[in-house]
Amino acid sequence: MFCKKVFIGFLSIWLVTACSQKNKTTSSNQLSDHQLLDTVQHQTFQYFWDGSEKNSGAARERINLDQPFYETDIVATGATGFGLMGIVVGIEKKFVAKEDGVDRLLKILNFLKTAERFHGAWPHWIYGETGKVKPFSKLDDGGDLVETAFVAQGLVCIKQYFKNGNLKEKRLANLADELWKGIDFKWYTKNENVLYWHWSPKNEWKMNLPVHGFNECLIMYVMAAASPNYGINKAVYDEGWAMRGKIKSPRNYNNIPLQFFHQGNAPHGGPLFWSHYSFLGLNPNGLKDEYGDYGLETKNMVLINYQWCVDNPLKYKGYGKNSWGLTSSYSVKGYAGHAPEITKDLGVIAPTAAISSIAYTPIESLSAIRYWYTQKKDKIWGKYGFYDAFSDQAEWYKPRYLGIDQGPELVMIENYRTGLLWKLFMSDEDVQKGLKKLNFTSPNLK
User: What PROSITE patterns does the record point to (predicted)?
Assistant: First the structure.
């Protein structure tokens, strides 16, 4: 009798647990696309709100929930730029009250105003408590013009969003405008027709990284051309970014074409963040110059990345139509630039790759988002949304986040839904002048 009672007791517990789990799954599956995207945006927004560095209000480089005291005071400049745009999204979607959002943005911008700058450029990392540079590497202890350009992109969006608001909002808009216009892009040419990534007072130009060819850096050239105080001429773009025309380098994967030489001569396009970071504000759709069509390139980069994961040439567990996306992210062993190449595909999927591509591939991206949320939520979903990366192949699921990957998810979902950040950035008068200076055409140019 005792055994029977115990059995019945266990059976009852199992039935309750099973029914509860079924209801959770059913509830998740019943979310509309609208509700699902709201959920992802709201949760991801918290990285830049609740998870921000406390003194500055800016975006932390990383948040590792399994290492709660690891690098909590390090601000990432690029992630902060994306976070500025993300807070605008949060205000627009009423995740926070507008006044609270304005106060937070003023806090961040005042921190950026007093933080160390190097001919107007911020460093890659900043100590949030002091505003002093934290060296990214031995030689990289000064200005990082690429990360700075990501901040400039966000500052333009803030200016446009608040410029017609109340007195405090106008003050915020004016401060944003002042900060980005203080970046000395000309200095970073070293009097050559190319933009250099780094400079520091101690090591000067020893990093020696002129920026050539397609990667995440187009926005740097656009902002440099747009700058009314320190603007570059078109020759810097033509000889630098476009490599005197050599950027035109057609290639394809499974009949999906690419037009451009990608940094490192990546045969199938580099890590997928190259199609995101520059295009959070800069709308690639219909954006063309004499070298190619940027809307086509960004979309085809994603289609190739997706198809590679579907083809799965290395036969990794978990790859497929509902789980895809290779980009630079956390990896099983540290950090890696995952990409659709045999030597760079390590069996690690980064949700940001597919999620941030939703504006280019809504069907494929939504399929992945829904699958991960309904079928893998217990393994890869946490306090700030989807984890940075995971591997079914290695059974590796770490609750870790990188700010520079969380930001594009929040922003690009909004661009897919409303075009908000694209509209703000592309409507700016200086941006319009800069794009025209570089001979771009776009349906968004007046």
Answer: PROKAR_LIPOPROTEIN
To which residue do tokens 């740097």 refer?
220
Handedness of CA 29, 33, 162, 98 (dihedral sign): negative
Answer left, alpha or beta for residue 15, where phi above 0 means left and psi between -120 and 50 means alpha. Answer: alpha
pTM: 0.93
End-to-end CA distance of the chain, in Å?
Answer: 84
* Domains assigned to the chain: 34-283+293-437 (1.50.10.140)
Mean pLDDT by 10 residues, the chain (446 residues): 41 43 56 97 98 98 95 96 98 98 98 98 98 97 98 98 98 98 98 98 98 97 98 98 97 96 93 98 98 98 98 98 98 97 98 98 98 98 98 98 98 98 98 98 97
Between CA 421 and CA 83 the distance in angstroms is 12
Cα 228 to Cα 62, 142, 434: the distances in Å are 34, 24, 9
Which two three-digit tokens encode residue 228? 């009314």
| Phi and psi based region of residue 173 (left: phi greater than 0; alpha: psi -120 to 50; beta: remaining) | alpha
Angstrom distance (rounded) from CA 121 to CA 144: 6
Burial annotation 23-50 (CB, 10 A radius, 16+ → b, else e):
eeeeeeeeeeeeebbbbbbebbbbbbbe
Reference 140, options 207, 212, 82, 91; nearest CA is: 207
The DSSP bridge pattern shows strands 328-331 and 334-337 to be antiparallel
How many residues are present in the chain? 446
* 75, 403 contact by CB (below 8 A): no
- DSSP letter for 240, please: I
Q: C-alpha dihedral over 133, 192, 263, 60, to 10 degrees?
A: 20
- The Cα-based distances of 129 to 19, 48, 55, 105 in angstroms read 49, 17, 6, 17
DSSP assignment letter at 243 = G
CA dihedral sign, ordered 89, 92, 96, 97: positive
323-335: string of b/e by CB count within 10 Å (b at 16+)?
bbbbbbbbbbeee
Q: Which two tokens stand for residue 244?
A: 């005197």
